[in-house]
Each structure stands twice: as structure tokens, then as C-alpha cells.
Design goal:
By secondary structure, the protein is α/β, with parallel strands linked by helices. It has three domains: 134 residues, Response regulator (Rossmann fold), CATH 3.40.50; 55 residues, Arc Repressor Mutant, subunit A, CATH 1.10.10; 123 residues, Response regulator (Rossmann fold). It is 48% helix and 16% strand. The protein is built from 15 helices and 13 strands. The strands form three sheets. The chain has a six-stranded parallel sheet, with helices on both faces. The chain has a five-stranded parallel sheet with strand order 8-7-9-12-13, sandwiched between helices. The chain has a two-stranded antiparallel sheet with strand order 10-11. Helix 5 links the parallel strand 5 and strand 6. The longest helix is centred in the C-terminal third of the chain and has 18 residues. The protein is globular and about 65 Å long.
């Protein structure tokens, strides 16, 4: 956007888990002409909520925050908000982190120990559509590492694991893809890291980028494979007992339904890749917002019919839910077998018209 246009302000979200640092960054941004901080947050879920609510022009973020998987989250944010400008402001100067995040989709990387004026310049440059890497990092990146051909022999499973890491999959997603337990995946990853002489999934992905000669084994794109069934239903609720109750009701109303159960927004995004026909999403998912979860489901699977459910429905929930693409908000007290049968029949009828 044109920063010299006095009639237009760039709207910025600031994300850092240290309140003092956050305040300093916000003050620096608000000193700049035509820039305004619209939200400041301190963890991963807060970032997702702020982006969905404010639709900002820029995100200034320290990726080392609670409940934030840097590579995976940046890729998802970039896919959902392709026009968003992302500047990482971090204390970490490790080449692996810098290159990994740049490859994942950030527009710039700036170190916290650099002068404040440099950070202001970085923000302005990134918002103007340029790429930014601060001087100390740029010198190292231009010099580049001495890359040697990898001398490792990987098993089929290890090559599958590396491919999953390259996709940004977490351990639960890898477990579903490979039909393994999460504990088994953790054990396999530990052995893989030891063999590659790396310490983390980010370092493993960086190793892979430095050794393109390593053969990978591609797994199915979707972690869920629905059988030939008339309807796929996604249940999103952090209460496992209520989820089981819903599952029983769906199974009774539509025995042929293929049912997916998840408890978190991240799991819901993964499940949405299987393009479910119907999703029932609780408005409150522990510390997460089910309406934001709905936004991500619709971004991943636009054709999915999402119905929000709540033990405490109100007009504001309904308004926000409809804005992000839900078709209704139902009171949990009213969601019995008869109501569920009507919901599923409506969904099946709409599927006929789509075909």
C-alpha cells in the first residue's frame, strides 16, 4: 500500500509474548505516519483471532511464542491471507530459523538488538512490498554455508517423515497420515534427528533444503480418507464426552455417515482437508474461539456447511458466526436426534443440487 497517502492508514497487528517488548514495538509503529496498531497479542491463538477480526495490512511478530508452531502457522497464515505483509522481529539469529521462515512465507526478518530506527524502516519497507533482512543476517546469508552432499542412508519411513516435516505437519497429523501412534512418531523423529545430526523439525527442514538430492516419499495429501459414504460429518468440540454423545446421535440418524472427531482448531483445519460435507463446531473450544475455527474451516473447505453449537447462544455469537460463513447457530439443549436429522437431511438435499 502507499504509505504516503494521508487518507489511508496501514493497520498492524503486533505479536510478542513479552508485554514490555510489545509496548515498545507498538510505540515505535504509532510514531510512524499512516500506521496504526489495531491489536497486540502474546500467543499463537491470539494471533489467529486478531488476524480474523481485524484483517490487518501487516503482522509484526516474534515467532517464539506459546502455542505457536512457526513454520506451520506461517504457512497457514500465508495461505489464508496472501496479501498480508509479515515481518518477524526476533532475538534469534540462527540461519536455520531465518531461512526456514523466509521459505515459509514471511516478508522480512529483523533482529531485536538492532537500532529502533532500523526496525521502523523494516516495517515501512515490508509494507511497501519489499523484502527485508537486517544487515547482520544479510551478510551471513549472502555468504552462505558450504553445502556438502548428504552422506546418509534413509529408510522408506524416514523419507516419509521428512516429507511430512516439509509439509509443516505436527506429530498428530503425521500419526494420522502414517497410521501410527503419536508416541511411535516421536520415537521415529528422534532417530531421524540423530541420523541427520539436527535438534528440531525446523533444523531437519533446513537440512532438507540444503540437500535437495535426498529422495522423499510422498504420502497422501489428506490425513483423513473417507470411505464411500453419503455424507462426511466433522464434529469439533473440546468436551470428549459431548463429542461422543454427538457421534452416537449422528450414527443413529445416519448410520452410513463417515464421522470425524477433533478437539482443537488445528485438528479441525487438518480434518477440513478431507472436505467434509457438514461440520458441527462448538463456539467455545477450551481457550480457543470456535468462530475463528469456523473461519479456518471455511478457508480450507469453502463448500463445507458449518453449524455452530453452544450451551449459551446469543445474538453476538450468531452475528459473528454468520460473518465467517456458518449457516446457523444452535442451542445445545435443542440439538436432539430430531433436530440433527433435519440438519443432515438439509445437507444431503443441498448435496443433490450441487451434483
Amino acid at each position: 500500500m502507499q504509505l504516503n497517502d494521508e487518507t489511508q492508514q496501514a493497520r498492524i497487528v503486533v505479536a510478542d509474548d513479552h508485554a514490555v517488548v510489545r509496548a515498545g514495538i507498538c510505540a515505535a509503529i504509532n510514531d510512524l505516519p499512516n500506521l496504526r496498531v489495531v491489536a497486540q497479542v502474546g500467543d499463537g491463538p491470539g494471533v489467529i483471532v486478531a488476524l480474523a477480526e481485524h484483517k490487518p495490512d501487516g503482522l509484526v511478530i516474534d515467532v517464539s511464542m506459546p502455542s505457536f508452531d512457526p513454520l506451520r502457522a506461517v504457512r497457514q497464515i500465508r495461505a489464508t491471507y496472501p496479501g498480508l505483509k509479515i515481518l518477524v522481529v526476533s532475538a534469534y539469529d540462527d540461519d536455520v530459523y531465518v531461512q526456514g521462515l523466509l521459505q515459509a512465507g514471511v516478508d522480512g526478518y529483523h533482529l531485536k538488538d538492532q537500532p529502533l530506527d532500523d526496525m521502523r524502516l523494516a516495517i515501512q519497507r515490508v509494507l511497501a512490498g519489499e523484502r527485508w533482512v537486517c544487515s547482520p543476517l544479510l551478510t551471513r546469508l549472502m555468504r552462505g554455508p558450504q553445502v556438502q552432499v548428504a552422506d546418509v542412508a534413509l529408510t522408506q519411513r524416514q523419507r516419509e517423515l521428512l516429507w511430512c516435516l516439509q509439509q509443516g505437519d505436527d506429530n498428530h497429523t503425521i500419526a494420522r497420515r502414517m497410521n501410527l501412534s503419536v508416541k511411535t512418531v516421536e520415537n521415529h523423529l528422534t532417530r531421524l534427528y540423530r541420523q541427520l545430526n539436527v535438534q528440531s523439525r525446523l533444523e531437519a527442514v533446513h537440512y532438507l533444503s540444503q540437500h535437495p538430492e535426498l529422495p522423499l516419499a510422498v504420502l497422501a495429501e489428506t490425513p483423513f480418507a473417507a470411505p464411500n459414504s453419503p455424507i462426511t460429518v466433522l464434529l469439533v468440540d473440546d468436551n470428549s464426552r459431548y463429542r461422543q454423545h454427538l457421534r452416537r446421535m449422528v450414527g443413529k440418524v445416519c448410520p452410513q455417515a463417515f464421522i470425524l472427531e477433533v478437539a482443537t482448531t488445528q485438528e479441525a483445519i487438518e480434518a477440513a482437508r478431507s472436505l467434509p460435507h457438514l461440520a458441527l463446531v462448538d463456539v467455545v473450544l477450551g481457550d480457543e474461539d470456535g468462530i475463528i475455527c469456523t473461519h479456518w474451516i471455511k478457508a480450507t473447505a469453502p463448500s463445507t456447511r458449518v453449524i455452530l453449537i453452544s450451551a449459551y447462544p446469543d445474538r453476538e455469537f450468531r452475528r459473528r458466526g454468520l460473518e465467517v460463513g456458518a449457516i446457523a447457530l444452535l442451542d445445545k439443549k435443542d440439538l436432539d436426534s430430531a433436530a440433527l436429522r433435519e440438519v443432515i437431511e438439509d445437507c444431503l438435499e443441498s448435496m443433490k443440487h450441487e451434483v
